[in-house]
Every structure is written in structure tokens, then in C-alpha cells.
Target: Non-heme dioxygenase N-terminal domain-containing protein
Amino acid sequence: MVLLSTSPFPQKYDRKAELTAFDEAKTGVKGLVEAGITEVPRIFHMPSPQNLNSNQESHSKLCPPTIDLEGIHEDPIKRKEVIKQVKDAFETWGCFQMVNHGIPLSILEEMMEGVKRFHEDDVEVRKQWYKRNGGGKRRVVYNTNFDLYTAPMANWRDTFYVTMAPNPPQPDELPPQCRDILLVYSSQMMKLSSCMFELISEALGLDPNHLGDMGCAEGLAVLGHYYPSCPQPELTLGTSPHSDTSLITILLQDHVGALQTLYQNQWTDIPPIPGALVVNAGDILQLITNDQFISAEHKVLAKKVGPRISVASNISTGLVETGKIFEPIKELLSEDNPAKYRGTTVTEYVNYYRKKGLDGISSLLHFKI
Model:
């Protein structure tokens, strides 16, 4: 068991040493819970004590729109309605929930079970997958917080991350606890993301294939998040406020809740809907649409109820070097609406984002003209 400081005012607090000790234990937040801790270690504490209570509350009764995709391939009138709903949602919320998306409930449930099996396997088995950074032969990265050493606070969350496209791993490179369902789920996500980019293209007034032809639907990274029950949820967060580096993120969340998005400067719940998927616009989508569509700033609360399971599918090539330059779409620009961002590769964007960590400042600012 790694001894971590829990007192809010310890006489001596060497944050780097405690982060290193936690990281080198390779057991994650789940390991702390398994060891029976009753207080949240200081490395997880929110840096502003005055925000502890306000940070946990949702101040709005509003919630993002839910869009029903049933019939969009057969009924042109329904498709036109959905395209308008997608446009409105991405211009105002940056996110929405979707139902009747075509992925069977059994696949969604098995994907969440697969994530749970991985994170709840024997600690010595989990340790074998633990890794701080990507690269090398290992295709799966499992750890607590990609920005553990750079962010102001550690988040109460363990994650495994695997790039499933454009260069898919071999089946034997995937964890056996979720290998089969990862392959099935990823195939379903690739189909769904292609459909989404057609709708988004049309919502922008472009040809349905425009974003697909740009290569927007080529990449997929699947993140299996595990949020253990937290003994002092008022002191920390499951995930700090951030927007995603992706073009879009398609999120599957379980019944626990705790996901919130920022809307009109108020934190607003995204309540779980059985069988629904949450779609977040990411930073790259905001960049190429020149701010017409906004990336959703969101966070996850820590809770005593747990574990919470979620599966994020980042539709993005991430750190896979493709050389493709993403810049504001020329068809959306005019004399009155000039380009606001310089062109960038997804890899350059992600590298900047990861180096900076979740510090509450949008990475888009770095790419502004």
C-alpha cells in the first residue's frame, strides 16, 4: 500500500514524490479503494477549497437535447429535421444525446461489462497493462490520468486507452477481459461515426460526404473509464473540466450519472438514458467549422456511489501521424467570416493538449490566428 498524504494541512507535502509513489504502485485509484482508504489523498484534492461545494452542484434544470435517429435513412423529412436538431445542438450546447442509433443494447451493455471486468481483475493482472505513455509495442495504455504529473490535481479515475483505427491492433494485443467486445463495438462505432459526419456535413450546408472526404472518420480511440466510489467526493473530481481533442466523441455512460456540461456558464447534468449515446463536439470540429460548432466543455463528478463506468469513443486519428492538415473549411469562410485558426495536424494538437494537461484553459487558444 502506498502511503499518501490525506491531511489538508500536512507539515511537509512533496507533491511530486507522492505522485511518483502512486504512479509506481501501478494499482490506480482502484488500488487505493481496495486498500481501504477512508480519506482522499491530497494529490486528488481540488486546488481551490472555496469551490468545493459550488463545483459539485448542477445549477440548471436544463439538459442537452435528445435526438432520435430512427428513420433518417428512409424518410427525407425526418432526416431534414434531425439535421436541423444537430445544427442547433452543436451551435449552442456542443453536445446532444442520441437514441435509435442502430447499435443494439446488448452490445452497449457488454462493452460496459468488458470495461468493468478489466478494471476489476486481480491487481497483479492489471499491473501488467499499466503504462505511463503511449509508444512502443504495447497498444493498450492503462493508467490513472494521462496528465498525472502536469495537471493541478489528479482525477478520481482509472482508464485504459487503445487506438482501434486507422491501424487496428491484432486481437492478441487487446486485453482478454474485453477483447471480443472491443472488436465488435469498434466496428459499430466506425459505422455510426460515418453516419454522424454525413449529418454534420449537411448541418453545415455541405455535401453529405464533405467531412468524410476530409478524413474525419478515419480514426478511432476507445477509452474505458472506471470511476471507483469515493469516500470524500466533495474534495475531488472524476474528470476535471475540459473539452475533447477529437472531431467528435461518442460516449456510452452507465446509470450512475455524474456527467455535466457547461451551458451558458452553468454546469448542467447530462442524465443517463438507457440505450442512449452522448455526442460531444471536439476541439478539432470547432476549429474546422471556424467556431460555428462549439466543443463541449464537460466534467465528471466524484461520487460515493460506484463504480461508474463509461466508454468514450474519440473519433480522431490522435497520435497516429497522418500528415493531414485540418484548418477552417474554405466553404464556410467569407470576407465577414475570415479564418480564426491556423491549420494543424491532429497529432500536433493532441501533443500540445497532452503536454499542457487539464488545466482549465482551452487548447484552441494556442491555435488562434
The chain has a mean pLDDT of 93.
